[in-house]
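Let us walk through a complete example step by step. Step one is to write down the protein sequence. Step two is to encode the small molecule, nicotinamide-adenine-dinucleotide, as a SMILES string so that its atoms and bonds are unambiguous. Step three, shown after the inputs, is the structure prediction itself.
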Amino acid sequence: MRKIRVAVIGTGFIGPVHAEAVRRNPDLAELTAIAGSSEETAAETASKLNVPFFSGDYKKVISREDVDLVHICTPNHLHFPMVKDCLNSGKHVLCEKPLALTSGEARELIQLAEKKNLKAAVNYNLRYYPMIQELKSRNSAMGPGQIFALQGSYLQDWLLHETDYSWRMESKLSGKTRAVADIGTHWMDLAQYVTGLKIEKVLAQFSRMFENRKKPVGGKDHTFDRGDAKKPSDYISYPVDTEDYAQILFSFEGGIVGNLTVSQVSAGYKNYMEYRQMGRDVSFSWNSESPNRVQIGHRDQANEILLKDPSLLQPRPASMSAYPGGHQEGYGDTLKFILRDFYSDILGRSVEGGASDYPSLQDGLSEMLLCEAIITSAEQGQWVEVGV
Ligand SMILES: NC(=O)c1ccc[n+]([C@@H]2O[C@H](COP(=O)([O-])OP(=O)(O)OC[C@H]3O[C@@H](n4cnc5c(N)ncnc54)[C@H](O)[C@@H]3O)[C@@H](O)[C@H]2O)c1
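Step three: the predicted structure of the complex.
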């Protein structure tokens, strides 16, 4: 295979972001097809993005000979059946997070991918900020025993109003946890990736701002659409059964402690993921709303601010900087680089700056096991061991 021929399923928020990122890897892949939930939305997106083939039926896309790899960018409940169908059709898969709704489903997908000898990845793309890669490189160089504690948050405000609506509010489409599965898993993936430490035990508490919310009748529900510009008669009330907010204590391997706050109802915080690491000698802090700087904290000398500049970074993070120092690297660039890692592995090519280490189906399973332990802990009010 000289170039990977890629299809994207899903035309909402993240589907077109994937389509653009495919095209930012022109030496490795090309976009050949797109599927939407109807002929109309598929046609509209295909025309906007100039994709040669489109369909409102994803099965017509995944059965095509000019498709080698499928990106699944649909609501969570469709991930399991769609990954399964793609693998059974002989296609490699990149699935949006979370991989499935349960760990049982995730295990089935791992076995199927192995049986079919196909490559699969889960899109925990936030690992691919260059400064996160830099922290990982620095941790590897410092060796084990340096890290003492981890802290963080992932805060958003797009579900703050009672009328804000997304399919994520429906647990049958989104899963038994909402905020934790949707954004908390990004932080947990990132923390385990940067430190190389597994989370072993969790103690969680959930909270909801509204027991009942209002949803638009027949309105758009794409991610980040505003739901507050309609008349009261345009809404119906429905009960909410998932969390708006979660606080979680972690016990990482080696007895390292950690905590995370996750919220989709924190006014003024848009996509604010914060990672803080405290060590014996230095601390690191980073947040996704200013992703090109890291604070390196010292006790006995002045703190340092490291700004993203490939000439100052380790080889792998430098290779994941699309632009020179001072020019901002952002969310869209993380997609470019996760695809570069994954596509290179499929093509058997080496990557600049070190080996591919994209999030695998095993990492997707690990996040499902964490979600399940967190749900059990929130229900029982006690520490719960994470399954393996
Ligand atoms: N990695 C990230 O940073 C990130 C960011 C946002 C969303 N996501 C994940 O991506 C997925 C999609 O989220 P979104 O925010 O784009 O949602 P969205 O609601 O904006 O888009 C979902 C799209 O899927 C389409 N769809 C639904 N059923 C379909 C079907 N049977 N066939 C084809 N298309 C179908 C819908 O029409 C819609 O266009 C979710 O699993 C979410 O967790 C990941």
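Step four is interpretation. DSSP finds eleven helices and 17 strands in the chain.
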